[in-house]
Specification:
By secondary structure, the protein is α+β, with helices and mostly antiparallel strands. It is built from two helices and six strands, in the order βαβββββα.
């Protein structure tokens, strides 16, 4: 599992819908054997609805669950990836737990230089 973000100031990322369309389109363009399905939304720790897609690619033997969480300036992306369907299915409950634990803290990050 890993996390990523997409900043909404980037063309194509302006909305969560546009980002999901771009992201899933990219997966489909890489292999004709890719399937994308809508999974149940997951409620995050701060009560946002994470949109979840399940992506499988038989050609590259890859299975993913991707949760998209809409924030004001970014879309947060949490990903579970596995090489086998069995491992993917075993890991899904922990992925749901990870997404459920997500809470946005602040856009006002201050990094202090302590020398």
């Amino acid at each position: 599992m890993y996390a990523n973000t997409a900043h909404k100031s980037v063309q194509g990322n302006e909305t969560i819908k546009k980002l999901i369309a771009f992201d899933t389109g990219r997966f489909k363009s890489q292999s004709s054997q890719t399937t994308v399905s809508q999974a149940d939304t997951i409620l995050t720790g701060d009560k946002k609805k994470a949109i979840v897609k399940h992506i499988s690619d038989a050609k590259h033997k890859n299975y993913e669950a991707v949760a998209y969480i809409d924030e004001s300036k970014t879309v947060v992306i949490l990903v579970l990836t596995s090489r086998t369907l069995k491992e993917f299915e075993i890991s899904l409950p922990k992925f749901t737990e990870l997404v459920s634990s997500y809470r946005f803290l602040s856009e006002q990050v201050i990094i202090e230089n302590k020398e």
